[in-house]
Amino acid sequence: MDDSQPTPRAPDPDGGGSRQRRVLILCTTTGYQTRAFVAAAQKLGLAVAFGSDRCRSLEDPWQDGALALRFHDPDAAASQIVDAARANPVDAIIALGDAPVRTAARACRALGLLSHPPEAADICRDKYLSRACLREAGLNVPAFVRFPLAADPGAILEQGLAVGFPCVLKPTALSASRGVIRADNPAEFLAAFERIRALLLSPEVQVMRDAANHFIQAEAYVEGREVAVEGLVDRGRLQVLAIFDKPDPLEGPFFEETIYVTPSRLELEAQAAIIKALSRAVTALGLYHGPLHAELRLNARGAWMMEVAARSIGGLCSRALRFDSPRLGPDLGPRVERVASLEEVLIHLALGADVRDVRRERAAAGVMMIPIPGPGIYEDVEGMEEAVGRPGVEDIIMTARPAQRLVTLPEGSSYLGFIFARGESPQLVEESLRGAHQKLHFVMATALPVV
Questions:
Q1: Residue 440 in contact with residue 381, Cβ under 8 Å?
Q2: The domain that contains 386 carries what CATH number?
């Protein structure tokens, strides 16, 4: 850590004064997670402040006193936070989604709050930088090379594609498999390159003003079973909260994620290899304190690091996670374990509390991110009552809104909604999710082309 910066302090989790503790939530105006974190903070008796990428020209349009920040300029955004904190101190900063993470890290360093270092946040945000860092540390990562957005894909092939075929082309800063395409031959490489270039040049992506979106990365395709890991880093120590199986094959040409189920059905030896690889990645990337979401693949050559993000799981997927802890959550009596949401755990962590005894609940749990069946205008969903009535299904939340234009991967960036289930075993949970999805029928209208 830069010696010119203050040493991170751990705010007293129990307060230590008459001032109500305050958490600053950094979020985009399009994120799903804000409400869950606000509810968790209020449950813990915390005051909540916001920083978002809203329009500066509007004077507090949501009447919540949020700071109008530009996450594409994390240094300037962090300075705004520091200035505001002089009058209204904050005890923790929570970043939701990818865009605010770099701002949060810089603001925490300046304010002396526990967080991941800015350098680590920057590396994790860029797939090229993170690949290079992990390769240097000796971890299994696919061969990779990146090209400027203006590069000629035909010339690249003429010179010889270093990663060979099959390969995977991807943006270096987008998430949720957006823009990720497998190519098995030169013709597919050319088509994928042009498709990703068009996506990165679209107004929706250009408005992000992220320099990492000026490149397209090509990687060797890694075969194997894919898992996701939800965890946290507590003052440099990795703590795995859940390993999610992804039972649907993710082989391309696109890589839309659907079902997450935990606990993992992998052999204990394989799970140990995952945790060992991830622990090495945490050290290599310099992650210090905060949430972590990782993607890995397993094959005969071991565990392969596909991605490590310095944030928690996205969308509404965190609802699939519940934790038992003698320290956290409401006191429901001596025979009942205290239950906490992921959001509560991460707020406690940001405040410097001891979360070492947090363990995921005993029940198996899972979530299905409902895939978009095809491009069009979403109108309605039928069969909801039958789907919710399936054994094990706890809730179905439709995040798509009537008249919303839906775009499939690789250009799309959203799901129709989320199905949540719990049960005695991962297999039963998976069956519940699939059974509920089969009962749903989505009414879509054809989207007219934009001329």
A1: yes
A2: 3.30.470.20
